[in-house]
């Protein structure tokens, strides 16, 4: 097991949310979309392996010519420089996710988040009918001989929710609790398996070339916090971080919508952190108090002894911003800005916090690490035991380094027994930009396939066509338990969509575009016709949507976007995916 003490840079959550997909088509009779093939250049294919150990029986397609089930030790064949989409249960089963093709792919690259990757690993390892630890073999009932009941059961799995995975294994696969692989065992198995592969080429990574003058952007989105580690989940509490709130007035919303980020330049002798970086933010109670103070047109301050004030009076939280369990605000402080700072390449903190900057090859950037247990206590603390487990993956096609991290904060007990022991998950993206004033975007213009699972396990399929100025929608939606035809195809404006949970739309000079940060956040919104921001949301119309997306393809627009719509008590209404097909 590789061990390295890596601690992410302090980055507060981003105001962001989501919507991206995947270029593709399939061979079913009802699919009229096809991705173009450029026959003017020679077509080459590459072989790769899906590893958790090597998995046989996972369905894949490269959206152009190659599709089938992984076999002979997890192998797949794809046209070079395309994107692979993976399914469990065949082409009609559950869409796992997508990633740019490369020599080795794992659940981390395919699913896009730490939590989804671990839950997929639990599922794959639990149903394994193979005889060797080095090769997971899926049963025929989940690969080449799939019944309708199994497909319906698979559609009800939400990889963001481990309980739905356990329910599938127990109720559909007939497994006992003792036969289901635990989270700790699943992680250890993945770590051991991935450690046996050299992933990526030995060529250098131009982005991190010392002295290049390259400007690197690093953004981090905190996903959730889990308090308690009881085996039966009886006292465990999961708290989803909310990064954007469409029920506030527009001025307040715009004030906190920008992402926390770090920009730095690689000069000859130093890493120069540019002016304007911000690692300061608000979460939980302070965040609600801040929004309340802004709504009252007050001046929010924090004293030296960490007391919050609004116009020099104790800060309070208005009912509108008092989120109920399991949701909690986390966003960037718009009033903070760091001056320029330079650090030597020999600085120990830089080496510990940013080891990827020193990578000499792509293969060094692809790793899964469990850090040593370390004490993060300050002078007044007794102990603050912590450790991290993370997957680090470099995509040579997107030229994005992704870090999916789970941080364990154990308090004064190193064995997870402390009452305040907790874990938090974050998603970090690291990529090169042309200038600090710019960013890189995913453009939505094109046709997207939307798949939504209804209560009976059937999927409603629709197409979203994003034009330069408006949006049309056709196909089906879930009504109660079953798919029904949509009765309103639009056209809708980008402003119409931005008023809902697609809040990143309709921004100046990028009406149809989003950043990676915006595609990996949770947003609160009011799903009521004619609702205007800042007004009270009608009873039963308030929802939270958690979005997740991993970029794929050279334009970053070939990944799978996942949308999880939840009620204020955390109950999932539905889970759906969006995938660019044209």
How helix-rich are the residues, as a percent range? 10-25%
Distance between the termini: 42 Å
What is the number of helices? 9
Low-confidence stretches: 1-35
Described by strand count, sense and barrel closure, the largest sheet is:
12 strands, mixed
Shape: globular
Rg (CA only):
23 Å
- Secondary-structure-based class equals mainly beta
Q: Indicate the mean pLDDT.
A: 89
Strand content: 25-35%
Provide the domain count. 3
Beta-strand segment tally: 36
Any overview of this molecule?
There is one protein chain. The chain is built from 9 helices and 36 strands. The protein is mainly beta. α2 runs parallel beside α4 (162-172) and α2 (114-126) crosses α5 (183-194).
Helix-strand layout with pairing:
Blueprint: E1 45-50, E2 54-56, E3 59-61, E4 67-69, E5 75-79, E6 83-88, E7 94-100, E8 104-105, H1 107-111, H2 114-126, E9 135-137, H3 148-155, H4 162-172, H5 183-194, E10 215-227, E11 237-242, E12 244-245, H6 250-255, E13 261-266, E14 270-273, E15 281-283, H7 284-295, E16 300-302, E17 308-310, E18 313-314, E19 327-332, E20 341-344, H8 348-353, E21 367-370, E22 374-375, E23 385-395, E24 400-411, E25 422-433, E26 442-443, E27 446-453, E28 459-466, E29 470-479, E30 482-485, E31 492-493, H9 494-498, E32 513-514, E33 522-526, E34 542-549, E35 560-566, E36 572-580
Parallel strand pairs: 1-8, 2-9, 11-19, 12-33
Antiparallel strand pairs: 1-5, 3-4, 3-6, 6-7, 10-11, 10-13, 10-25, 13-14, 14-20, 15-19, 16-17, 17-18, 21-23, 22-23, 23-24, 24-25, 26-32, 27-28, 27-36, 28-29, 29-30, 29-31, 33-34, 34-35, 35-36
Helix pairs in contact: 2-4, 2-5
């Amino acid at each position: 097991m590789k061990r390295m003490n890596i601690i992410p840079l302090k980055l507060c959550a981003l105001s962001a949310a989501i919507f991206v997909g995947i270029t593709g088509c399939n061979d079913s009779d009802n699919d009229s979309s096809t991705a173009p093939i450029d026959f003017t250049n020679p077509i080459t294919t590459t072989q790769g392996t899906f590893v958790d150990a090597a998995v046989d029986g996972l369905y894949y397609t490269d959206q152009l010519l190659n599709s089938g089930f992984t076999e002979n030790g997890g192998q797949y064949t794809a046209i070079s420089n395309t994107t692979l989409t993976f399914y469990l249960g065949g082409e009609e089963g559950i869409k796992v996710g997508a990633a740019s093709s490369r020599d080795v792919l794992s659940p981390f690259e395919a699913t896009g988040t730490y939590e989804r990757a671990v839950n997929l690993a639990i599922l794959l390892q639990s149903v394994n009918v193979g005889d060797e630890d080095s090769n997971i073999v899926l049963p025929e009932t989940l690969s080449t001989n799939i019944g309708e009941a199994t497909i319906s059961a698979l559609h009800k799995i939400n990889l963001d929710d481990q309980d739905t995975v356990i329910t599938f294994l127990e109720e559909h696969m007939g497994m006992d609790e003792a036969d289901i692989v635990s989270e700790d065992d699943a992680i250890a198995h993945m770590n051991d398996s991935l450690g046996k592969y050299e992933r990526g080429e030995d060529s250098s990574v131009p982005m991190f070339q010392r002295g290049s003058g390259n400007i690197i952007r690093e953004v981090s989105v905190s996903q959730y916090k889990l308090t308690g580690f009881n085996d039966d989940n009886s006292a465990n509490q999961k708290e989803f971080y909310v990064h954007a709130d469409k029920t506030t007035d527009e001025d307040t919303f715009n004030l906190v919508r920008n992402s926390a980020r770090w920009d730095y330049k690689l000069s000859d002798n130093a890493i120069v952190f540019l002016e304007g970086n911000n690692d300061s933010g608000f979460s939980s109670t302070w965040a609600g108090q801040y929004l309340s103070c802004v709504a009252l047109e007050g001046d929010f301050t924090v004293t030296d002894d960490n007391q919050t004030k609004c116009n020099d009076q104790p800060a309070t939280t208005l009912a509108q911003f008092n989120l109920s369990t399991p949701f909690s605000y986390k966003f960037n402080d718009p009033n903070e800005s760091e001056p320029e700072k330079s650090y030597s390449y020999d600085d120990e903190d830089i080496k510990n916090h940013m080891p990827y900057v020193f990578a000499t090859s792509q293969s060094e950037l692809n790793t899964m690490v469990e850090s040593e247990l370390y004490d993060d206590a300050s002078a007044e603390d007794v102990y603050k035991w912590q450790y991290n487990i993370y997957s680090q993956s470099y995509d040579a096609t997107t030229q994005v380094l992704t870090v999916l991290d789970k941080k364990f904060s154990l308090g004064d007990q190193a064995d997870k027994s402390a009452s305040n022991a907790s874990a938090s998950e974050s998603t970090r993206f690291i990529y090169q930009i042309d200038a600090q004033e710019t960013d890189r975007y995913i453009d939505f213009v094109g046709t997207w396939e939307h798949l939504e699972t209804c209560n009976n396990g059937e999927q409603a399929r629709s197409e979203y066509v994003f034009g330069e100025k408006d949006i049309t929608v056709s196909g089906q939606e879930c009504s109660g338990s079953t798919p029904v035809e949509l009765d309103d195809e639009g056209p809708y404006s980008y402003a119409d969509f931005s008023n809902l949970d697609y809040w990143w739309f309709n921004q100046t000079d990028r009406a149809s575009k989003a950043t990676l940060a915006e595609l990996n956040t949770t947003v609160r919104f009011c799903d009521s016709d004619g609702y205007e921001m800042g007004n009270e949301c009608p009873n039963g119309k308030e929802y939270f949507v958690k979005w997740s997306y991993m970029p794929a393809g050279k334009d970053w627009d070939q990944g799978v976007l996942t949308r999880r719509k939840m009620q204020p008590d955390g109950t999932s209404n539905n889970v759906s995916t969006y995938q660019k097909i044209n």
